[in-house]
Amino acid sequence: MQFMPDSYTEAAGTHSASTLPADSVGVITPEIAHFDTPLSLACGKVLPEYDLVYETYGTLNAERSNAVLICHALSGHHHAAGYHSRDDRKPGWWDAHIGPGKSIDTNHFFVVSLNNLGGCHGSTGPLSHNPETGRQWGPDFPMITVSDWVESQVRLADYLSIERWAAAVGGSLGGMQVLQWSLAYPERIANAVVIAATPRLSAQNIAFNEVARQAIRSDPDFHAGWYGEHDTVPKRGLKLARMVGHITYLSEDAMGSKFGRDLRSNDLNFGFDVEFQVESYLRHQGDTFSTTFDANTYLLMTKALDYFDPAAIYGGDLSRALAPAQCPFLVMSFTSDWRFPPSRSRELVDALIHAGKPVSFASIDSPFGHDAFLLPDERYHAMFSAFMQRAARELNLDTQANKEVTS
Amino acid sequence: MRADLDIIYDWVPQGARILDLACGDGVLLEALAKHKNVSGYGLEIDPDGITGCVKRGVNVIEHNLDDGLSSFSDNSYDQVIMTQALQALRRPDKMLDEMLRVAEEGIITFPNFAYWRHRVHLGLRGYMPVSKSLPHAWFDTPNIHLSTFNDFEHLCRDKGLIIVDRAVGVGDHRGHWTSRLWPNLFGEIAIFRVRRRTT
């Protein structure tokens, strides 16, 4: 499946000539790790074997102490930085923040970015072959939770002989995975960066997800999830799901300043074809997404979002849930994000404070809504890199890099 | 470090858990953590200050002090420190209550409006004072509640607080004997350590 990240495409600049930008990690080839040990999932099912596709940027040091894990969001994947070929028009979805001299500086860090289980970009998911039935997994693919993802990421760390991540980093749903790491494997992450995330979805968040799921499931081409066997794709459903999702990723102001009430032509047509620019944009986003993303994966990922609530087993007391966490946290949110607004990050921060954990928090002024976490921004970059540089200093990574330079 | 920070540094006990309101770039918290094993959080609203804290490895929370300290529970800290922010708050008296809800002891510093140079500006020349401790013009100053050494002492007395310590800073130095004798006249920066009465 061709890489085409949703609104992410706008996050990164394009390059014209076949020369890559100097601060790019360059041309990257994804790798696949195969796991034979069955993975027991939160839903009670067992995944007998699976593949995880991942990319790495930078160099792992001899002590294997400079590895940073990138956890992706709802429609993200392993291709976070660099290019797959010199002719690629656009780099990975977080290229603005991963590379030499960037927030996650590949001069210091070895970055690992994977496609999560249940994904549709190369890791085992609904599009994969089910060894037990001989059919495609399709809707039979077990429901995956954030903690299942973390379990699979732990195995990837073991596979790469990384005992402890210098940092686990993620935005949105990726931030939830980072949070889960800090609770479930506190001794295996040295730092946590949680961006534009929330410790649990609100009723409104779940409601938007449900609209997206219903759009997909009510598409006549969905065939109860077996569209692969019917040689169809529930494109209309996926498109609608994406259109709804996309509205929640942008702020009212961002939409207003980008499109306003601009019309595609000068006159009103008094019909239902595309007239306003914003309609055209949403339809384009939906169309693109519907041909590049798998419907069963989308259903599964939205469910993982809905289910995540580490405080639930502590009667909603998040600070008790956070008791096992050991590492310093950086929590960041964006002022115009109404999907996971600053108040949701603050909820997490307050719980960390109550639990007496080391945490820093910044609410970055940005007009770009939830998508702001993907975009370059001066203050965002300053905070992000300050935290990562301090992490590098405390892990003695910067002196190592200097040594390599001087020797 | 600034003169007031120097004095505060001495007033914070070894191993204390503190909150530093308007912590700037975290220079005080860093020194306290390094040499006195002090832990806690800084609260700041200025983006450059916040980034500065993160660079130093100081825990900092972006927070507007006018929103109160509701994130912090009663008696959860040993000391709450607030330097050079009292005069910029909407309700300095309420913040004092908040500080002494969260901790038994508070340390507060602010520019003393009754400092003799300020008096000269206003009393003799007839202009709002502009000085090292009050660097802004009247129209763009964030300082909306200027007060004097005496005013603050008065407020503490009204609230039934114990003034454990008081000092003044002049320029970059601790005040010398004149300012110790007549702090309201010769102190440029007022520095108070106050405690609530245990009931």
UniProtKB/TrEMBL annotation, chain B:
Gene3D superfamilies: Vaccinia Virus protein VP39 (3.40.50.150). It comes from the Bacteria. Pfam families: MetW. SUPFAM superfamilies: S-adenosyl-L-methionine-dependent methyltransferases. CDD domains: AdoMet_MTases (cd02440). InterPro entries: Methionine_synth_MetW, SAM-dependent_MTases_sf. This is Methionine biosynthesis protein MetW. The lineage of its organism: Bacteria, Pseudomonadati, Pseudomonadota, Gammaproteobacteria, Oceanospirillales. The gene is metW.
